[in-house]
Amino acid sequence: MKVIDIYNILDKISPFYLQEKWDNSGLLVGNKEDEVEKVYISIDLDEEFLDEVEENSLIITHHPLIFSPLKKINFDDYCTKLLRVLIKKNISLISMHTNIDKTHLNEYVAKEILKLDVIKKDDINDFILYANVNKDFDTFAKDITSKLAIKSTNVVKCNQVVKKVGIVTGAGMSLLSEVDADCFLTGDIKYHEAMDAKSRGISLIDIRHYESEKYFNTLLMGLLEKNLKKNKLKAIISASKNPFKFCIQGETVE
């Protein structure tokens, strides 16, 4: 099976044209005519993961390895180090980022992981997914963090009751001004963003970046499995590790 064949399947599942203007989804490394022997699925790339990947394979990641234009390639930073390995081992790389956020990932996490009462979206281009809640804030926050296996997190509590919640997996605070809910779930919340949310009367629960998006692997596996089986290809989930560890009362935990 060629890279272009898998690319076309992915494009039907979640069209690449839906990605944001600043994004860099699509085929980032490799040739569309290359034959693929194995397919790997991961939220990100890291050196340990790439050591395990066999030559002449295809990796499908959520986060693009290349975001900004490369002005030099001297193998001394994260991106160029990994590019060197990909090229040496003839490994192709396709990334599905903001396109699959919009079409599948936000909804998958909201429905399948958090078990929220999701309100159907009117526009596929909308990033923010909404759900009806009607729960006490403290109870709701505890339920959300428990389902995501988050031991501690930051919250901004503006209201005692959560009636309607908006959710964006990964980092969605740039969309705060568009949130039409009394509570917002997203990751990578900064101090001044929290102050902004408080002034707007929008409660926040930080569901973290990795913890909210790690489900990309199982989601895409389910979407791809039938098509790959027809071509006698097997997808291998081999997730990169969260670079963060957390220190709770002097103890470092995952």
Characterise this structure.
The chain has 254 residues and is an alpha/beta fold. 33% of the residues lie in helices and 23% in strands. It contains 8 helices and 13 strands. The chain has a 6-stranded mixed sheet. α1 crosses α8 (216-230). The longest helix has 16 residues, at 98-113. It is globular. The two termini are 38 Å apart.
Describe the structure concisely for a colleague.
This protein has 254 residues and is an alpha/beta fold.
Rounded average pLDDT: 93
The SSE order reads HEEHEHEHEEHEEEHEHHEEE
By DSSP (H or I, 4+ residues per run), the number of helices equals 8
Q: How many β-strands, per DSSP?
A: 13
The first-to-last residue Cα distance is 38 Å
The shape, in one word, is globular
Structural class: alpha/beta
Question: Which descriptors apply to this entry?
Answer:
254 residues, alpha/beta, 6-stranded mixed sheet, 5-stranded mixed sheet, 8 helices, globular
